[in-house]
Known about the structure:
The protein is of the alpha/beta class.
Amino acid sequence: MNILGIETSCDETSAAVLKDGAVASNVISSQLVHREYGGVVPELASREHERLIVTVVDAALRDAGIDKSGIDCVAATVGPGLIGAVMVGLCFAQGLAWSLRKPLVPVNHIEAHIFSGFISEGEEYDPPEGDFISLTVSGGHTLLCLVRENLDYEVIGRTIDDAAGEAFDKTGKMLGLDYPAGPQIDRLAAEGDPSFHRFPRALCGRNYRDNFDFSFSGLKTSVLRFIERHDTEFVESRRPDIAASIQEAIVDVLVEKTVAAALEYKTGSVSVAGGVSANSGLRRQMAEACAKRNLGLHIPKAVYSTDNAAMIASLAGLKLSRGLAGTNSYDVAPFAGFHRS
Ligand code: KG4
Ligand code: ZN
């Protein structure tokens, strides 16, 4: 069974082939046109997907050693994401599936992130038995979910303002870093002192034990005020320390809430996915906190943590194998905001 996956929800044009449940190829083209604007420009993202989609799909098929006639099923992101961007990949997938007379499986981008911690190359994709807590942290989303064994899930917490990735990107921009700033803050933080300055940890601590929501807008304001209070030379010279302090403030909140949720809902394991799960501080602190509480931890390899089509094809494969996928979807409509497909 060969599934072609297509992902175009934001600024990555990606295609992947899943052969009998294992990733055979995963091609990701990251759009550079947004750099000079300090964030993703939706219209430019759609145009770039349009320009790249055929090349990226061809490369994924070639890397997997098949051609179009070898495709048994096409899976594509149906949302959430930038509506024009989602539309490019979904319409392409629908047209291709229809022309090949093969089924089209629409995949929810967030659900694909949730299960991306279980992709392992060369092996079948297999989520754990039993419930688990999933933290999805990307540029657009910060969601805490209780995921049940039957692949159903309940959202138990979400950000009430900025996403965690946005907090990295926007505070990084204040430090003069290019978009996306998350990976650069990660690199700078490795040389800095996280106790240099204590930025706020919102909705945390004793008074918020049952609150699994997140808020990062106060952190943003606090970083801005800190930079305004100090001269440019000082900020420049202490950039690694400021980056390490920002990273620690974000990571502390993510770890505290995720572990608290696992204890509250009595799950044996935790998974962390989305672009921010590539952060080395988050990986380290989450691993330490989970080990202390005897919780299993699943984090995707970096290549599966940011947007990629392997996670789209993998979730489609898993749902098909369990009889949970809708496949008569040539006319399914894309959506922008978070809801469940
Ligand atoms: O999941 P993703 O690729 O795209 C969205 O769906 O948003 O996530 C992108 C986000 C960006 O905000 C980026 O700055 C952040 O993930 N990110 C990181 C790291 N790598 C990517 N944030 C912190 N540390 C990293 N190493
Ligand atoms: Zn994403």
